[in-house]
Design brief:
This protein is α/β, with parallel strands linked by helices. The strands form five sheets. It has a seven-stranded parallel β-sheet. Strands 3-2-6-7-1-8 form a six-stranded parallel β-sheet, with helices on both faces. The termini are far apart. It binds adenosine-5'-triphosphate and magnesium ion (MG).
């Protein structure tokens, strides 16, 4: 018991930490030390003589992995900690795929396409096949393809067994072509990082055996959010002798939309018959009130795994509700509260997080914080590596590493401008397809593509010479030198400087920052190659950049806040149609997922929760009147008070009615007209012209109406403002 790793654990945690027999599951509520147990278990194993190279630990974000690594390093030292296999599913599997690429007929230097790349590839496929599917955007189709991949349904299978309607048949065609193009580009999308390993292991028992032997202990955090493919991979790695420890909380499963299967958690005991289940019941994070409030909401979800959660922490303050007129007022009132918190109590900015359901909510918040001179950092948003100017340079690096990466090549063909327009590019693509060449080889034979004008042929040739020069320099220069020289050669910094707009100055800074980040990466990963850097970039997500040391308020979506904790938590936009996000999520199970998300939000807090809602909000280019979120109504009234308007204690239904009353205003003059609107009626609108009513939702002032306009597509409007005339 003298081991560092067993210090400060309670009895239940200690038992779970020391248990090292068969597969075991730790299922427990928020803040009960699940992640802590995982960390200590790993340290304990290593102290006990277990080889760190034989431990595979899977987390949900790179940030979580790094944090764990730091804690373990503190307990057992850097030499051993470094040898652990620790990271997200995606990063660990990308590493394995690079090693084993050849067995999949891929080259080691394959590119990893992020969502944006995939969407653009889908767009190119739609153009090439000259089809459209029910007017769906490339992004919607990419989403469909991604869900199929998450369910492990490959194109052949989809075409054969699932494609019945004409739209599905077209989807099958797009999906097939999309996958073929990926392969020809020597590229994988995010979903492939999970799917390909399964194929690899199923087809090459020898390779699987190698990793099975390597991973003697497998540990998984946030198990409730693993999808089917991830679970499959865990099952592949685990044989009779492998130790398996998974940790999760079914009440915090929030990635259903991304194919996570809560079922995995519920089935675990069936799949691994001798599983031992541990429960942790003491919460160390939050006050009694916060736990009670969170519990009163989540209990409205049926089918939860039975759990108790209690804490020795103090009762704490009441949760509070801020009622606001609109999103600007909400942002203003929040800044006011923050100022009050930091002056009256000993709270610093880094102790505060502002959470929102959807990214677009952040804009009003940011504006107010800037005006009030409150430093903040936004996590997620338009992430650094997703910015156009950064992606442009990264696309160059990808092409240097992998000349088959046609998406990246197309991206930079005319960046910076070199007079190679889309028409010429299309002609080159046609040539490439006709002679079954890669686009890059087509560039080498540009003078044979006689449809392309001579002047442009010369530009292509010049471009090819430039690329070849840097492909050759790769082996002679460090990654930082290579990138700097390339950026110099392209003249992009000079270009941004000359443009001299607010935007171009920002781009200038970002390109500089990219060079810094490459230098930094090379310093931290001695001997790393361009492929390693590119893997890192593709797998980087906003949350990873999150640093806790600086004194900033943190803004992020609730999804990004998983596993984190803050003394003070603001939960904004507690309105129907935002939280829960009804429009998209209208089945019971989807509302339940929203409720779990609400539970996650509340349980991030240590001492204080402030919920806010606005009675009107600018959305989809229209002012929408909002109803207060049902979740606020579900909170135990004894734990919550209104901040800016004393509210009587009442049952949740009365409370809800009370809030609804606050919204009520007189718009009687519109009522007459509203009553005659029906689904199917044809109407005319001042701005959008004529259209047909698709749906009418709600009653009174918050009633919304969806109309398919002939020229402007489908719009969702507030009936009372829409000024419609029946035709
Ligand atoms: P979540 O469900 O949100 O991921 P979790 O169950 O993983 O939460 P942890 O993040 O591991 O919980 O722990 C929550 C907080 O409680 C942390 O600050 C942790 O250091 C603290 N904690 C956990 N166990 C103990 C303990 N035995 N003694 C003191 N503090 C503890
Ligand atoms: Mg955790």
């Amino acid at each position: 018991m003298s081991m560092k790793s067993l210090k400060d654990l309670n009895q239940a945690q200690l038992e779970a930490t020391e248990y090292n027999e068969g597969p075991h599951l730790i299922v427990a509520g928020a803040g009960s030390g699940k992640t802590k147990v995982l960390t200590h278990k790993i340290a304990y194993l290593i102290e006990d003589g277990f080889n760190p190279e034989n431990i595979l630990s899977l987390t949900f974000t790179n940030k979580a992995a790094n944090e764990m690594k730091e804690r373990i390093t503190a307990m057992i030292g850097v030499t051993k900690a470094k040898k652990l296999w620790m990271g997200t599913f995606h990063s660990i599997l990308a590493r394995i795929l690079r090693t084993e690429a050849e067995s999949l007929n891929y080259k080691k230097n394959f590119s990893i396409y992020d969502r944006e790349d995939s969407v653009s590839l889908v767009g190119n496929v739609l153009t090439a096949l000259n089809i459209s599917i029910d007017d769906k955007s490339s992004s919607a189709i990419q989403h469909q393809i991604s869900s199929l991949k998450n369910k492990m349904i490959l194109p052949e299978e989809f075409a054969k067994f699932h494609a019945e309607t004409p739209s599905e048949k077209k989807l099958a065609q797009v999906y097939t072509e999309y996958n073929d193009r990926l392969f020809e580009n020597n590229s994988m999308d995010f979903d492939d990082l999970l799917l390909k390993p399964i194929q690899l292991f199923n087809n090459h028992q020898r390779i699987l055996a190698k990793y099975k032997k390597e991973f003697k202990y497998v540990l998984v955090d946030e198990f409730q959010d693993t999808n089917k493919a991830q679970y499959e991979i865990i099952k592949l790695f685990v044989t009779g002798r492998t130790k398996l420890c998974v940790v999760g909380d079914d009440a915090q499963s929030i990635y259903g939309w991304r194919g996570a299967e809560l079922e995995n958690m519920l089935n675990f005991e069936k799949d691994f018959p001798k599983v031992k289940v541990f429960r942790l019941e003491q919460n160390y994070r939050s006050t009694k009130r916060i736990l009670k409030a969170a519990g009163s909401v989540i209990k409205n979800n049926p089918g939860q795994i039975e759990k108790t959660l209690w804490t020795e922490n103090e009762d704490g303050e009441m949760l509070s509700v801020l009622r606001c007129t609109d999103e600007k007022d909400e942002a203003f009132q929040i800044s006011k509260q923050i100022k009050k918190e930091i002056t009256s109590k000993k709270i610093s900015l880094k102790d505060i997080t502002i959470l929102y359901r959807i990214n677009s909510q952040s804009r009003a918040l940011e504006e107010a914080l800037r005006r009030e001179k409150l430093p903040y950092k936004i996590i997620g948003g338009v992430e650094f590596y997703r910015r156009k100017e950064v992606k442009d340079i990264v696309a160059y690096l990808r092409v240097l590493a992998n000349q088959n990466d046609e998406e990246s090549l197309l991206r930079i063909m005319n960046f910076p401008q070199r007079g190679i327009g889309n028409t010429s590019i299309s002609k080159m693509i046609a040539f490439a397809r006709k002679f079954d060449l890669s686009f890059y080889s087509t560039m080498a034979r540009i003078f044979e593509v006689i449809e392309v004008k001579e002047r442009i042929q010369k530009n292509v040739k010049q471009f090819k010479i430039l690329l070849d020069k840097y492909i050759d320099l790769q082996s002679k220069l460090s990654l930082t030198e290579l990138t700097s020289a390339l950026i110099d050669d392209l003249g992009v910094l000079k270009m941004y400087k000359e443009e001299n707009t607010v935007e171009s100055r920002q781009r200038y800074d970002n390109v500089q920052e990219l060079i810094n980040s490459i230098a930094d990466f090379s310093k931290q990963n001695k001997g790393a190659t361009i492929d390693d850097f590119l893997s890192d970039v593709s797998l980087f997500s906003g949350i990873d950049s999150y640093e806790n040391d600086d004194n900033f308020i943190t803004l992020m979506t609730i999804h990004s806040s998983k596993g984190l904790e803050f003394p003070v938590v603001f939960i904004t936009g507690c309105e129907e149609d935002i939280f829960p996000l009804n429009k998209k999520f209208d089945s019971d199970s989807q509302v339940e997922e929203e409720r779990r998300l609400f539970y996650v939000a509340v349980t991030r807090a240590e001492r204080k929760v402030i919920l806010s809602y606005a009675r009107s909000r600018y959305r989809f280019g229209e002012v929408a009147y909002q109803d207060v979120s049902r979740f606020i109504g579900e909170i135990d009234p004894e734990t919550i008070k209104e901040l800016n308007n004393g509210v009587r204690k009442s049952s949740s239904r009365r409370r809800r009615a009370y809030y609804d009353e606050l919204y009520q205003e007189d718009f009687d003059e519109f009522d007459q007209e509203r009553r005659s609107l029906r689904v199917g009626s044809r109407v005319s609108h001042e701005k959008f012209g004529e259209g047909k009513i698709l749906a009418i939702n709600g009653v009174g002032d918050s009633q919304k109406i969806s109309i398919a306009f002939e020229e402007f597509g489908t719009k969702h409007l507030l009936t009372k403002f829409a000024k419609l005339t029946l035709i």
